[in-house]
Write a structure and sequence with these properties.
- This protein is mainly α.
- The chain is built from 14 helices and five strands.
- It has helices spanning about 20-35, 45-50, 55-70, 90-95, 105-110, 110-120, 125-130, 130-140, 155-170, 215-220, 240-250, 255-265, 270-295, 300-330; strands at about 5-10, 35-40, 80-85, 145-150, 180-185.
- The strands form two sheets. It has a three-stranded parallel β-sheet.
- α1 (about 20-35) links the parallel β1 and β2.
- The longest helix has 29 residues, at about 300-330.
- It is elongated and about 85 Å long.
- Bound molecules: tryptophan (TRP).
- The site of tryptophan (TRP) has 12 residues, from β1 and α8.
């Protein structure tokens, strides 16, 4: 018997992962993979809901994700990484729970609302995209996960999943679907190199795990500092200064950081000095990850095999849940 609690997390394969993902969720997954029975879904079907005209992109980014996972320290022998489309039972679970969600409820989901507005899809929302919050709940139920590590912004998604589980169980008088709990880690906010409060692929302000040392250097020297500071002798601002935000995140020597901030405020240190040191500490931090990322490039086939094995394992678990759902819904015929 496996006594460990089940955890499920995942990503859409739409792009390479960056240091925001690393600090925000990947490191958390690495920490949790020993203590929990961890599942990581590569949500390629959900990625298609708003990239359906670009299947190649989704396909290629599965491999990129696998490499990023490996680079960040996800151990494919501990965590079960799986590909959504290889677990069709998810779609079956989705169909059965969709009776317990309403169109109005999904329409009011803050995450989907924002996304529809951002993409300008108010008058032509693809149904597949619209239903993805419910499909996401099916991901959670396909392994009956107890815990879902998420950022605060995803809390409504977990709450919706809990309601769906409860409604299904109550309606059919079963104790089948677990009500998942959100597991909030320490929120780490990694701003973009341009000073935007968030790092995002579409914002073009990312430092990727796959960036070379030269790319890292280039980006570190582009990092947004204090635009009002023209000469190194001008007193500088620390607030909103990305160079110092990154120092706070990546420089383990807090004393040094405080000293630099002090000198910066007084106009006694140059931007380039702060950045040169930032490059050093970030490079030290990211170098082993970059090296593993390069190693992973040569292991793509092997990692894909692992993901297929993981998918098979999850499909078996999910089919077990489907059978119990069907039993509860009077969907068993003959002696089957
Ligand atoms: N939609 C999530 C994202 O874009 C990924 C995801 C898919 C997920 N299924 C999930 C996260 C289930 C948590 C639980 O990041």
């Amino acid at each position: 018997m496996n006594e460990k609690k089940r955890i499920l997390t995942g990503d859409r394969p739409t792009g390479k992962l960056h240091i925001g993902h690393l600090m925000g969720s990947l490191q958390n997954r690495v920490r949790l993979q020993d203590e929990y029975d961890e599942y990581v879904v590569i949500a390629n079907i959900q990625a298609l809901t708003d990239n359906f005209e670009n299947p190649k992109k989704v396909r290629e980014n599965i491999e990129e994700l696998l490499c990023d996972y490996y680079a960040a320290g996800i151990d494919f022998n501990k965590a079960t990484v799986f590909i959504q489309s290889e677990v069709p039972a998810i779609h079956e679970i989705f169909m059965y729970i969709s009776n317990f969600a309403t169109v109005q409820q999904v329409a009011h989901n803050p995450t989907i609302k924002t996304e529809i507005a951002q993409k300008g899809l108010e008058n032509s929302t693809p149904l597949g995209f619209f239903i993805y919050p419910v499909h996401q709940a099916a991901d959670i139920f396909c392994v009956n996960a107890d815990l879902v590590p998420v950022g605060k912004d995803q809390a409504p998604m977990i709450e919706d999943s809990r309601i769906l589980a409860r409604k299904f169980n109550n309606t059919y008088g079963v104790k089948l679907l677990h009500e998942p709990e959100a597991l909030f880690g320490t929120e780490v906010n990694v701003p973009g190199i341009d000073g935007n409060s968030k790092m995002g692929k579409s914002l073009n302000n990312c430092i990727f795990l796959s960036d070379s040392e030269e790319e890292l250097r280039k980006k570190v020297f582009q990092v947004y500092t204090d635009p009002a500071r023209v000469h190194a002798t001008d007193p500088g601002k620390i607030e909103g200064n990305v160079a110092f935000m990154y120092h706070d995140l990546f420089n383990g020597n807090k004393e040094e950081v405080e000293k630099m901030k002090d000198l910066y405020r007084k106009g006694e240190i140059k931007d380039v000095e702060v950045k040169e040191r930032l490059f050093e500490v970030m490079n030290e931090y990211l170098k082993p990850i970059r090296e593993r990322r390069i190693e992973a490039e040569g292991m793509k086939d092997e990692l894909m095999v692992k993901a297929f094995e993981g998918s098979k394992k999850v499909q078996v678990i999910a089919e077990g849940i489907v059978e119990q759902m069907k039993e509860a819904m009077e969907l068993r015929f003959g002696n089957r």
